[in-house]
Amino acid sequence: MSASVGAQKQARSVLVTGGNRGIGLAIAKAFLANGDKVAVTFRSASELPEGILGVQADVTDAASIDAAFTEVEAAHGPVEVLVANAGITKDTLLMRMSEDDFTSVVDTNLTGAFRVIKRASKGMIRMRKGRVVLISSVVGLYGSPGQINYAASKAGLVGIARSLTRELGSRGITANVVAPGFISTDMTAALPEETQKQYLSTIPAGRFASAEEVADVVRWISSDEAAYISGAVIPVDGGLGMGH
Ligand code: NDP
């Protein structure tokens, strides 16, 4: 039996970016149910379940991230688990994709993750422990027409997680990528019905997943049980991306 089984678990300070709705909110709820102290970032005012601390932040703005972390640290202590979840899409085919369509998606999804990880790493290095989870997508490694910007940003997260693992792995810090397939949220509801049907036909599981199914994996990869997993890409995609 593992030495940690039955030991008193300490509530950790958890921060989820873009945790006011969708997958981020499901992740925040999973950590709350786990007994952790949970904060989420939001951009516009949103109603959050009791027990979750909301802090305003835009991941494209380093100053607002710094202010949000300072608020979370004052309330819950240094962030020990960071989930970089905030993300956007601006889908269109290459020929129609403007430079702004490309750079704005990369700025939010990839540079935004860099900004929050950089801010969180200070406290993690000091504590000599930490969990970083980057929410990527099956599309990052599988590719998707009309999503060159989004796929590039999501593939880039793998490079961040693996480099972070090599830089900070010896300090008790892990960095992993969770790559969801199609999850029922506002993001997928916005896809045309025909596209949704087409995707469904290619998913071995024959269904989209719930946000909770992603949240459970994020909670587990951040647990003591997963302390020796770092730099991994964990698919939660019903088999869609097999062979990555
Ligand atoms: P939603 O569109 O439902 O939510 C996106 C979240 O990101 C919102 O909380 C939003 O905040 C936040 N956000 C967007 N831009 C910024 C910004 N500049 N600064 C701060 N927060 C921001 O998306 P999902 O829940 O579906 O997706 C969450 C993550 O999972 C994303 O990274 C997405 O790419 C990824 N993913 C989703 C899949 C799916 O099928 N849904 C599949 C694979 C990956 P606000 O409310 O203020 O807009």
How is the topology of this model organized?
Layout: E1 13-16, H1 22-33, E2 37-42, E3 52-56, H2 62-76, E4 81-84, H3 99-127, E5 130-135, H4 139-142, H5 148-168, E6 173-180, H6 186-189, H7 193-202, H8 211-221, E7 233-236
Parallel strand pairs: 1-2, 1-4, 2-3, 4-5, 5-6, 6-7
What's the CATH class label?
Answer: Alpha Beta
Count of beta strands: 7
Enumerate the distinct ligands: NADPH dihydro-nicotinamide-adenine-dinucleotide phosphate
Number of domains: 1
The major sheet is characterized as: 7 strands, parallel
Instruction: Determine the mean pLDDT.
Output: 94
Q: H/E series, N to C? A: EHEEHEHEHHEHHHE
pLDDT < 50 runs, ≥5 residues: 1-7
List the keywords.
244 residues, alpha/beta, Rossmann fold, 8 helices, 7 strands, globular, disordered N terminus, binds NADPH dihydro-nicotinamide-adenine-dinucleotide phosphate
